[in-house]
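pipeline: protein-struct stage 2 | run 1193 | RNase H type-1 domain-containing protein
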Amino acid sequence: MERRTLDPDQVISHARHYYSAFLSQMGDLMARPRTTTHDRWSPPPVNVVKINFDGALFVNEGESGIGVVAHDSAGSCLAWLSHGLPNCLSPELVEAKAAREALSMAQRLHWRRIILEGDCLPLLQKLKSLREDYSATGPITSDIFHILSVFNCVSFSFIKRSGNSVAHSLARTSFGLQGVGDLPPTALAYLLSVL
């Protein structure tokens, strides 16, 4: 059998072509959803989980907190978390870490069709673009892009702070807890008192 010698330039050209086709298909699979904007929270469509995330800064204490809450189409709470982040005082970093936690939760719970909703429009636009991020949030958005590959369908939704109040309240409390199902009575009582 005769052995062919491949031209390195031709191999590189083919690799670029297949890589470009791969990125195009990934974009189609991810559906590069538009970023929708809402004033008020609403439940997701059937068979989709909506995950709201938020971050809060406590400048005087030198800390921040993140809150995440997931709901189904009936509006029932499926899972939530609330914990602090010491020495993190950049609003965009805190929001990015909250988004990463939200997606990690969805991955752990094997949800495949999700809406990621938050009140940090610049971050949501970065995530929607799927472009490499050279800012301070770059390592976190890189982690997020890796996690996004496990989902069948992802949409990004911007909601004003007033519509993201449960995630925001969880971020402000920094309970250091997480759970599947309804919020615990102590968290629920606090949230109802501040909403």
